[in-house]
Design a protein that fits this description.
It contains eight helices and nine strands. By secondary structure, the protein is of the alpha/beta class. It has two domains: 2-171, 3-Layer(aba) Sandwich (Alpha/beta knot), CATH 3.40.1280.10; 186-247, Trp Operon Repressor, Chain A (Orthogonal Bundle), CATH 1.10.1270. The structure holds adenine (ADE). Adenine binds next to β5.
Length: 248
């Protein structure tokens, strides 16, 4: 799966991309992340990409030209790569010939949740557009018609952390990225059961007077599965009654 990230701050991603699961996934060619600096598409001699809002008001707005032209250039590049791959008959799937699904990270988008993560993971290529300032000139959305996505009802300083969050959730569903193929299916909110995950314990058996529930030490797999299911339901009922009611 390929991600193209369009941002003013590509360096924000470097630490994230060189650690842990994502680092391994990139090394194994399961995931690739290409970073594009929107400023490279500025026509201004000072490389300016923002301006004051018409009608007044605080803050600055992302100008439409560098953003639209950056996205179009990345989409064109994607189509050209696909053509080259097709010639080599390496591209079998029709869906792969898309220029990539364009996502704009904004607090005004549809909320990111596990079903949406699952939907995004069906694409072989995602283009993630990260905002800054007071947002984009409206014509960016009017022209490009991106899938606008929010990671929650709060305002971040920009879309970069939101893009990393989305990438982090999506790559867990890319086959081979997690060691154990089944583990993402049993996460909280997975499509197997939309409940919170049950409590987990490891050694020691007793810590500061708190003991691991006896059933987990019993070796009785039926009893363990029953305990986990009940614990999962109880947690969901207590912590997220909204989800619990959805499941009923
Ligand atoms: N940019 C700023 N805040 C955001 C949010 N909550 N979700 C996605 N992108 C954002």
């Amino acid at each position: 799966m390929r991600f193209d990230v369009l941002t003013l701050f590509p360096e924000i991603f470097s630490g994230y991309m060189t650690q842990s699961l994502l680092k391994l996934a990139i090394e194994r060619s399961l995931v690739s992340i290409e970073l594009h600096n929107i400023r490279d598409w500025s026509r201004d001699k000072h490389k300016c990409v923002d301006d004051r809002p018409f009608g007044g008001g605080p803050g600055m707005v992302f100008k439409p030209e560098p953003v639209v032209e950056a996205v179009e250039a990345v989409q064109k590049q994607a189509l050209e790569n696909n053509e080259a791959l097709k010639k080599n008959e390496a591209l079998e799937n029709e869906e792969d010939s898309e220029p990539g699904h364009l996502v704009l990270l904004t607090p005004q988008g549809r909320p990111l949740n596990q079903p949406l993560v699952e939907e995004l993971a069906t694409h072989s290529r995602l283009l993630l557009l990260c905002g800054r300032y007071e947002g984009f000139d409206q014509r960016v959305s009017d022209l490009l018609e991106p899938d606008e996505i929010s990671i929650g009802d709060f305002v971040l300083n920009g879309g970069e952390v939101a893009a990393m969050t989305l990438i982090d959730a999506v790559i867990r569903l890319v086959p081979g990225v997690l060691g154990d193929e089944d583990s993402s299916r049993y996460d909280s909110f997975s499509s197997v059961g939309r409940l919170l995950e049950h409590a987990q314990y490891t050694r020691p058996r007793e810590y500061r007077g708190l003991e691991v529930p006896e059933v987990l030490l019993s070796g009785d797999h039926t009893a363990i599965a029953k305990w986990r299911e009940e614990n999962s339901q109880e947690r969901t009922r207590q912590r997220r009654p909204d989800l619990f009611n959805e499941n009923e």
